[in-house]
Amino acid sequence: MKHFAVVLSASALVTAGVVRRDYGYQFSSALAIGPVADNNFIREAVTTLELPELNSPQTGNLALWPGMGTSGGHLVQGLAISVLDGSAGCPKVKGKWCIVASTLESDQQMGKAVSADPGSSVTFSYKYNDGTFKYDQDILVDGKVVSSLSTDSGKAQGWGTAVECQKAACGKAPAHKYVDTKLVLDKADPGFGDTKGTTGATGELVTADGGKTWTIDTISIESHTYT
After folding, report:
1. For the whole model, what pTM was predicted?
2. What's the CA gap between 202 and 218, in Å, rounded?
3. What is the spatial distance between Cα 106 and Cα 151, in angstroms, rounded to a whole number?
4. Mean pLDDT for the stretch of residues 64-71
5. In the record, which residues are listed under signal peptide (predicted)?
6. SS (H, E, C) 55-115
7. Once rounded to an integer, what is the mean pLDDT over residues 35-43?
8. Domain boundaries of the chain, sorted by first residue
9. Which residue stretches of 79-209 are H helix?
10. Cα(first)–Cα(last) distance of the chain, in Å?
């Protein structure tokens, strides 16, 4: 992937999960924050996606994801995928989302993939582990951990949401929202909020502690039709 609203790291956010086919890949509405200032990084990021209905028709391979571009050129990205044919490591189930922890390195690293119904709350938690120098990724559905992954990815330079379509036209990707988003920097940076960019999305980024912890109550993502 190139970039959607702003570049999140020196390496930028790159394409998510599914192998690129003739259709290629397309992105639409997004909110992005970053990059961080020199000698800083995102230590922790957590957000909860309220799963919308599936794309209509349920074609192609549609992914909703919050991701972090890292200094190691990786993309830490838990995924909510709509796909019918059981590709991308997902169960072959109609009418459900596929939820999986994932990091894109030179290859895609993935945790366990599980199915989830529209209306479920999916929490994506990414935390830097000082003991292992890895990012520990936990994905929860309605408060229960369902998929985990730890990867040596460097340090996160930026964070953002994405709506991605691959393999074939994905029809109408519904509007959706993320709630209770929190980013924790390694060092306070009062100017970090100025790095936010949006395309077809809204969300107010604020800090209450001088710039170390940043929160967004609600990120609203517009619908988009892929043709």
Report:
1. 0.90
2. 8
3. 12
4. 98
5. 1-16
6. CECCCCEEEEEEEEEECCCCEEECEEEECCCCCCCCCCCCCCEEEECEEECCCEEECCCEE
7. 98
8. 25-225
9. none
10. 19
Q: Which residues have CB under 8 Å from 144's CB, separation 6+?
A: none
Going by C-alpha positions, the residue among 208, 209, 161, 214 that lies closest to residue 192 is 214
**CATH number of the 25-225 domain:** 2.60.120
Which two tokens mark 110? 């993935």
pLDDT higher than threshold 60 for residue 52 = yes
Residue 224 CA to chain centroid, in angstroms?
Answer: 17
The tens digit of pLDDT for each residue in 133-155 reads 999 999 999 999 999 999 999 99
pLDDT above 90: residue 67: yes
Taking a C-beta distance cutoff of 8 angstroms, is the pair 3, 12 a contact? yes
Name the nearest CA neighbour of 160 among 195, 189, 120. 195
Q: What is the DSSP secondary-structure string of 158-174?
A: EEEEEEEEESS--EEEP
- The residue among 23, 65, 9 whose CA lies nearest residue 226 is 23
**C-alpha to C-alpha distance for 152 and 215, rounded to whole angstroms:** 26
Checking if the pLDDT of 196 tops 90, the result is yes
Average pLDDT over all residues of the chain:
90
**Residue 199 tokens, joined:** 């395309």
Per-residue pLDDT at 21 exceeds 60: no
Chain centre to alpha carbon of residue 40? 21
Quote the pLDDT of residue 10: 26
